[in-house]
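Practice record 12: protein with zinc ion.
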Amino acid sequence: MNADPDCIFCKIANHEIPATVVYEDDQVIAFDDLSPQAPVHTLVVPKEHYRDITDGVPAEVLASMTHAIDEVAQAKGLGEGFRIISNKGAHAGQTVMHLHVHVLGGKPLGEGLL
Ligand code: AMP
Ligand code: ZN
């Protein structure tokens, strides 16, 4: 599996550094964000290293990420709804250059995206 030795999310995926893991399978790991922006803030991350959503991510990896989002929603009791965000590049404020989807919820988030 592709891994970047300097990438913090590759290290979490390989269990080299700790995280609060919410869900894991062969392709994906989901863990709580270190700086939560909502009562529930979990990151869904492919174990293979892709820079962002435009980095040629295979369809089966995207399907596994979608499945993992549903697993997180169930594990975290997000039946009333949640928001997903994936930042790409400087204008989006991406800080970790390993594809990840933020799952945010646990309270009404309002109608605005930002
Ligand atoms: P982004 O701005 O979309 O690149 O988001 C990166 C996210 O990763 C931020 O919300 C950080 O709080 C989070 N983060 C960075 N390092 C860790 C870590 N070691 N464990 C959990 N979350 C992290
Ligand atoms: Zn990585």
